[in-house]
Amino acid sequence: MKRRIALTLLCIVTALLQTAWPEALCVASIGPNLAVILTASFALMCGSRTGMLMGFWTGMLIDLFSGGRVGFYALIYAWTGFLAGFAYRIFYDDDIKTPMLLIGLSDLLCGLYQYIGSFLLRGRIHFFFYLGRIIIPELIYTVILGVFVYQLNYLINKKTIRGYFSV
After folding, report:
1. Cα separation of 149 and 99, whole Å?
2. Cβ proximity of 147 and 40 under 8 Å
3. What one-character DSSP code corresponds to residue 67?
4. Confidence class of residue 162 from pLDDT cuts 50, 70 and 90?
5. Which backbone phi and psi does 93 adopt, to 5 degrees?
6. How many CB atoms are closer than 10 A to CB 146?
7. Between helices 48-66 and 34-46, what is the axis angle to 10°?
8. Residue 78 CA to chain centroid, in angstroms?
9. pLDDT reading at 18 higher than 90
10. DSSP label of 87
């Protein structure tokens, strides 16, 4: 029960930070993708199912809070969590390189999906402009912030997980 409450609060806080206060985290009008950090980190620590559920609910809250197309970000982050969960078997607790690589790849995948769903389908085909001005700076900022946010997510996961000997 404690774990579900903690994960629900993480989804809500992440969605609020991503939609309600984006200018608080932006540098040069580029903000980090906190939903990718949350989704990829929990997918890596807990597997595809948890990553997919965290991604879906965070994405759904982002869709509802932003007033855009309902289900667009929910689908992006659910797929991201599902695919990132495949690295669950090769994850080691003391290694920071695997989570940062996974967060970077997940952000690149989300950026490409956003480009296809938001720009390419409307006839805007300036891919390299979008890649250089939006996707790559967001990826770098997300990975840098991901180093710190991942450590917080890791602590929350360790404190709320039920082990064999916990009460």
Report:
1. 11
2. no
3. T
4. low
5. -60, -35
6. 27
7. 160
8. 9
9. no
10. G
